[in-house]
Amino acid sequence: MSGVGRLYRIQEFAELAGVTVRTLHHYDRIGLLKPRRNSAGYRLYAERDLERLEHIVALKFLGLPLKQIKTLLGKARFELSEALALQQRVLKQKRELLNRTIAAVEEAEEALRQGQRPQAAILRKIIEVIEMQSSSNWTEKYYSPIAREKIEARKQQWSPELQERATKEWTDLFRDIEASLDEDPAGEKAQRLADRWCNLVGQFTGGDAQISEGLNRLWADRENWPEEAKRQTAPYANQRIWEFIGRAMAARKAR
Questions:
Q1: Sign, CA torsion 184/189/194/200
Q2: Distance, CA of 54 to chain centre
Q3: What is 8-61's CATH number, 1.10.1660.10, 3.40.50.2300, 2.40.50.730, 1.10.150.20?
Q4: 138 pLDDT higher than 90
Q5: Are 75 and 52 in contact (CB under 8 A)?
Q6: Residue from 26, 27, 22 nearest 11 by CA
Q7: Is the distance from CB of 123 to CB of 105 less than 8 angstroms?
Q8: Residues 151-160: contacts with CB within 8 Å, 24+ apart?
């Protein structure tokens, strides 16, 4: 253990760092902060463990989940600026939702001040934006920490214009598939539809296998989505379309 400087037992290190022993046990258990062990099996922490713990505490304070923190710190070269930029985008999205909630509540309050009952549409808006806040990160559980990072990176290249175009292309594709449900899935027309499907999926995943796996898990669990998400994706929920494209994909692989 030469060259590591002073070593601290867990209770002493917890007091030095301002965290609980239970927290250190948890970080050790999940591999986020692994101390050395002496011959008797007791945990020993070094000065560099304190520096890593400071990074963990700072990133956790910013709202990053522990799994993502572990991924960031596990990189050969940890860039704090990368983590901060990622969290800044998340916080801006939350701020936008909060601003929408506040605006809707203020509108309802103004109606009450004027002796009026708030319109049902205003109350629905309040409910909608609050539900969006509570479920804004609901898709994260379907993706691995690395996949989530890749998705965030791809968002930097994704403009409102691209989103509008993708939405139109998906809408057109679902319409064309619905009109072709009686076609042979292995036939030329069905295979052209399958090609369009793959191209659109590729626009989101970039051909990345980890993102694709998460996307498949996400759509396979649609029945457990938040109600607002179900409502927004209702135009794409026709089960016959999904079954048809599944058969077309199977025929595509068999070629």
A1: negative
A2: 25
A3: 1.10.1660.10
A4: no
A5: no
A6: 22
A7: no
A8: 151/211, 152/86, 152/89, 154/204, 154/206, 155/89
Given a cut of 80, whether residue 89 has pLDDT beyond it is no
Question: Is the entire prediction scored with pTM above 0.85?
Answer: no
Place of tokens 């072709």: 180
Cα–Cα distance, 73 to 51 (Å, whole number): 11
Name every residue whose Cβ is closer than 8 Å to that of residue 235 and which is 6 or more positions away in sequence. 171, 174
| Residues 6+ away with beta carbon under 8 Å from 179 | none
Cα–Cα distance between 206 and 195 in angstroms, integer?
Answer: 15
Which of 59-63, 105-109, 157-161, 196-200 comes out lowest in average pLDDT? 157-161
Mean pLDDT of the chain: 82
Identify the band that residue 196 occupies on the pLDDT scale cut at 50, 70 and 90.
very high
Task: Round to whole Å and give the CA distance between 54 and 14.
Answer: 12
Flag whether pLDDT at 127 surpasses 80.
Answer: no
Residue 37: φ, ψ to 5°: -130, 140
| pLDDT at residue 240, rounded to an integer | 93
